[in-house]
Design goal:
Blueprint (H helix, E strand, L loop, with lengths): L6 E8 L10 H16 L4 H4 L2 E5 L8 H7 L5 E4 L5 H14 L5 E8 L10 H4 L9 H5 L3 H8 L3 H15 L13 H6 L2 E3 L2 E2 L9 E9 L11 E10 L15 H14 L4 H4 L2 E3 L5 H10 L8 H7 L15 H4 L4 H16 L13 E8 L4 E8 L2
Parallel strand pairs: 2-3, 2-4, 9-10
Antiparallel strand pairs: 1-7, 1-8, 4-7, 5-6, 8-11, 10-11
Helix pairs in contact: 1-3, 4-15, 8-12
Length: about 375
């Protein structure tokens, strides 16, 4: 079954991504969802929303936080797929609408890791993910093989960091509004070689929400709905123990991208996609994603980075709002935030970071170490 053009996004909202010490999870959910309500013209959610799909990694109470904060008691399902949770929640919502189970569905992604009393996800997953036991450590495993095979280096990663910091400065709700230089990135304190401080995404608090409905109903809500061209999920073996892993790619991304392109009818993603949000938990992850998503050939990313292909004014702007690196990474919210940004871009509402004449947008959300990937492609009618 193909989802292409059967589901439309009619509303999008996002809280401020930050260290939101004065807000709890419910506050951020309300911020994001009521913005999405207003965007869709929904004034009676109890009548107009049929179901809710949500996702969070660090919630202490589970989906009850969503229903209680909104006082909206509908069929409610919680989705979990590590850092790909947000896009997975969007995917199952789209499937429910396309299958005719529900007409209009709310999708909420949220997390509040800053209240957990620990510095990051490595504390909760240490000892269960093979070695090395931190996200920076296991994502860095591709660096040496890739650099040796293709002649890339830390300066290429630094250029990605500089780009995403600059883009984040243009997004009102982003966390890190700080432009940096290549020298800043190269000279920052080392986290896990080759990742310095500015090669690593900022983990934050935040929530994001979108509302989807049947494409045939979408114009009853707004004049410029955004159609879902594809949304898919893929899994792959643990790259640390996979005997066939060459540490030059993330297999789940390659599989998900191929399936998404088939569903959307795309055969030349670099030319056909106008803007993309990719999972830049680390700068190397973004570099590999250029290739794994088929934006360029394997080993060619460095030339595209040097020429500015993926800059905001480039041929295919990537992470127009700063990405995880600069906008922030509240894990369960990230995939939904990417969809919010792509909706704004397609509707011409992205302000200073607007990509001219954007009509087709991709978001890419990986999870695990990484063993999962979800890709969504949105477009205008």
């Amino acid at each position: 079954m193909s989802l292409k053009d059967k589901v439309a996004v009619i509303g999008a909202g996002c809280s401020k991504f930050a260290e939101n010490w004065t807000k709890n999870a419910e506050d951020m959910i309300v911020d994001a969802v009521f913005e999405a309500y207003a965007d869709a013209g929904i004034d009676d959610p109890d009548r107009q929303i049929d179901a809710i799909f949500c996702g969070s990694l660090y919630s202490a109470q589970g989906p009850v936080e969503v229903s209680e904060s909104l006082k909206l008691f509908k069929p409610l399902s919680s989705v979990y797929n590590y850092c790909a949770t947000g896009t997975e929640a969007f995917r199952v919502a789209c499937m429910a609408v396309a299958a005719g189970v529900h007409d209009t569905v709310l999708v909420v992604g949220y997390d509040k890791p800053k209240d957990r009393g620990v510095s990051g996800p490595s504390v909760s997953i240490r000892g269960v993910r093979d070695l090395p036991a931190t996200p920076a450590g296991w994502f860095a495993l591709c660096a040496k093989p890739y650099f040796k095979a293709f002649g890339a280096g830390r300066e290429h990663l630094a250029r990605i960091a500089v780009k995403n910091h600059a883009n984040g400065c243009l997004a009102p709700k982003s966390f890190l509004k700080k432009e940096i230089t290549i020298e800043d990135a190269l000279n920052a304190r080392m986290i896990s070689w080759p990742f310095g401080l500015y090669d690593c995404a900022a983990q934050t608090d935040g929530a994001a929400a979108v509302i989807v409905t049947r494409a045939s109903m979408a114009r009853t809500f707004r004049d410029d709905p955004v159609l879902v061209k594809a949304v898919v999920s893929a899994s792959a073996p643990n790259p640390h123990t996979d005997p066939d892993n060459d540490f030059l790619r993330w297999k789940a991304t390659e599989t998900a991208a191929a399936a998404a392109y088939r569903m959307a009818g795309i055969d030349d993603p670099f030319r056909q996609i106008d803007v993309a949000q990719v999972h830049d938990c680390f700068t190397l992850t973004e570099l590999l994603s250029y290739e794994d998503l088929g934006f360029c050939a394997k080993g060619a990313a460095k030339e595209h980075i040097e020429s500015g292909s993926f800059a905001l004014a480039g041929e295919l702007p990537v992470n127009s709002d700063g990405g995880l690196k600069s906008f922030g990474h509240p894990t369960g919210a990230t995939g939904v935030r990417m969809i919010v940004e792509n909706v704004l871009q397609l509707q011409g509402r992205a302000g200073a970071r607007q990509v001219a004449k954007a009509s087709l947008a991709l978001s890419h959300n990986i999870g695990g170490f990484p063993t999962g990937c979800a890709v969504a492609i949105l477009g205008m009618e």
